[in-house]
Amino acid sequence: DAKTTQPPSMDCAEGRAANLPCNHSTISGNEYVYWYRQIHSQGPQYIIHGLKNNETNEMASLIITEDRKSSTLILPHATLRDTAVYYCIARTSYGKLTFGQGTILTVHP
Amino acid sequence: EPEVTQTPSHQVTQMGQEVILRCVPISNHLYFYWYRQILGQKVEFLVSFYNNEISEKSEIFDDQFSVERPDGSNFTLKIRSTKLEDSAMYFCATGLAETQYFGPGTRLLVL
Fold this sequence. Notes:
Oligomer: heterodimer
Structural class of chain B: mainly beta
Number of strands of chain A: 9
Radius of gyration of chain A: 13 Å
Order of helices and strands of chain A: EEEEEEEEE
Order of helices and strands of chain B: EEEEEEEEEEE
Distance between the termini of chain A: 37 Å
Number of helices of chain A: 0
Helix content of chain A: under 10%
Largest interface: A-B, 20 and 27 residues
Largest sheet of chain A: 5 strands, mixed
Radius of gyration of chain B: 13 Å
Strand content of chain B: over 45%
């Protein structure tokens, strides 16, 4: 699985968009970019994933660069409940998820 | 919305004892996984299971660990002889296609 690099921490004001970057310069053609988050010690929560195209769902948007070497997760209107550790993971279909340290996002009032 | 459930939520055991952690997957899911997270550390992959056999396992998943689907529904992780270092949160994840959905975890404490 390709290695991903994320900033260790980020802050965001409540109500503003949170943009979380991820670098995955060695991603291979059959690897998807997945985003999960973990709140305290709860089970990781799936957010979104994509291969080449930008994706949007009810939780977030995923922007993948054309060369697929980096991506950005966008939480359009962050709330206090979005405070969590966010993981960007490159993975083939059905394969294991390899978690890194992730980005600690703190949403403040 | 369907969820992965795990039992028990907490388990305390003595070193050397056997423990069985149980997971009820989302109905019709075909792919099953176990992960663990030692306090303060990363989530680590243990094993994946598909079509009634292990498809991949990590170095952590040694002979002390085993998995099965005894009744075609529950998915279990057995640790035969627990060690202090097995203390962790154990997460089950299940999937039908590309996405894995995690359960809430079982907190295992080995004394």
